Amino acid sequence: MLIGVFLLLLLVITAVAIVRSTDLFSGVMLSGIFSLLMALNFFLLDAADVALTEAAVGAGVATVLLLAGLKLTPSTEARARPVRPIAIIVVAIIALLMIYASFGQPSLGDPTAPAQTHVAPWYIENTPELVDIPNIVTAVLASYRGYDTLGEVFVVLTAGIGVMFLLGGGRGKPFSRLHTDPPQGLSHYLIPKVIARMLAPFILLFALFIQFHGEYSPGGGFQAGAIFVAGMILYALVRGEDKALAVIPPHVLLWMSAGGALLYGSVGLLGIAMGGQFLEYSVLADNPVTGQHIGIIVIELGVGLTVTGVLLSIFHAFAARD
Length: 322
Hints:
72% of the residues lie in helices and 0% in strands. By secondary structure, the protein is mostly helical. The chain folds into two domains: 1-77; 117-322, no CATH class. Helix 6 (136-144) packs across helix 7, helix 7 (146-166) packs antiparallel against helix 11 (250-273) and helix 9 (221-239) packs across helix 10 (241-247). Residues 112-167 form the MrpA C-terminal/MbhE domain.
């Protein structure tokens, strides 16, 4: 409890520092610290899946992308406009309404909360029989809420397409200006170069573990894709863009982005073809439980492919800009 209060206090201090900072570089770095603190809070709340994603995306990938965007902007913010009283009033009213609404929410860990007395007991009681995997969170996200997760995958794909068009990736070759003289990155710094060479293989290996072990421990396609992208970005920063694109070329990234979502949807259509409903995995094998395992593994692979393809495409598109 004391650690949670301490981390919450650090979150508030960091958020205020971000708002008050006039130096954009400091704001970006503070945002990365804020994401790390959020990941620690998620771990304390036993939300390990969300913590992994927050640490990889919020503190890792997002920070790198913000720094890349910062290169295209001035180092300091423009002079702020005078604060309008109406804006302060609107913000204060909304804040008070949100605080008032929070009083109607159940307390943290309340065993009598509706989620604990209706939904959660059903999942806990029936998952061993229907899905038979230890990680109930994966069963909920990949099987019971398969429609919702499919929608999230297409949201990621659509967002990636939009960013690529904004950065010029929708016109011909998306990553064309990669060779700079002198070379940019961290390749000429000895300590980052040595540490990155040591850590990158383990980061990628851990991503594969998270991908294919998500049924038995925290993880899955979203977390694995984000961690894999973080490892590849580290590799690109140290070894250079050309080396990173030699490992996963641009056309492969585009196929991964669309192919992952297509793979996910194809599992649903296969269920219909085999006499079941859309995203009903139990009909994929003679044993319904085995069919659930097959469906979850395949759709999680699709999620991982899309997340990896989209995030890496966005990173390389940023890196290709002048």
